[in-house]
Amino acid sequence: MPVVAVSKALRDRLGDEGAEDLAKLLSSVEEAAREDTLVVVEERFARRLAETESRLNQRILETEARLDNRVTEEVAKLEVQIARVDSRITEEVAKLELQIARVDNRITEEVTKLRADMSAFKTEIIKWMFLFWIGQLAAVGGLLALLR
Questions:
Q1: pTM above 0.70, yes or no
Q2: Which GO terms describe its cellular component (predicted)?
């Protein structure tokens, strides 16, 4: 707080007491003016701060709305792509199931053929076994007849 100096001429006219009272009066007026100025500056600052806050809140709300719309659009696009991929996978699974059914039928046919072939081999082997046994019996019988 600056010190108010009263000139010598004014001090001589007012006297020491009057000069001091004048200095106190001027100091208090200056202090009041300073306080009033601070109040006005604080009010302006508060108003500007509130306006800035309001603008920022509005911008934030607008940005949130844009982001919301963008996210909704992207989710919709992803859902469409997922549906396409799902249908392609379903088609591929159906194709694979058809191929598996064909392979299963082919395996069943081949197993049936193998069983038929094995039965034929079995019959052939039994036929040759009987012929071999008959030949063996004839040979043993012939040897026994010779030895007697």
A1: no
A2: membrane
DSSP of 34-49, one letter per residue?
HHHHHHHHHHHHHHHH
Give pLDDT tens digits for 120-146: 999 999 999 999 999 999 999 999 998
Per-residue model confidence as pLDDT tens digits over 49-73:
999 999 999 999 999 999 999 999 9
> What are the C-alpha distances in Å from 115 to residues 38, 96, 106, 118, 123?
109, 28, 14, 5, 12
Task: Give, for 29, the enclosing helix (H) or strand (E).
Answer: helix 8-147
Alpha carbon of 123 to those of 50, 128, 129, 137: distances in Å?
A: 106, 9, 10, 21
Residues 6 or more apart whose Cβ sits within 8 Å of residue 19: 6, 10, 11
CB 44, CB 52: distance < 8 Å: no
Q: Is the CB of residue 19 less than 8 Å from the CB of residue 6?
A: yes
Strands (DSSP E) along the chain, which ranges?
none
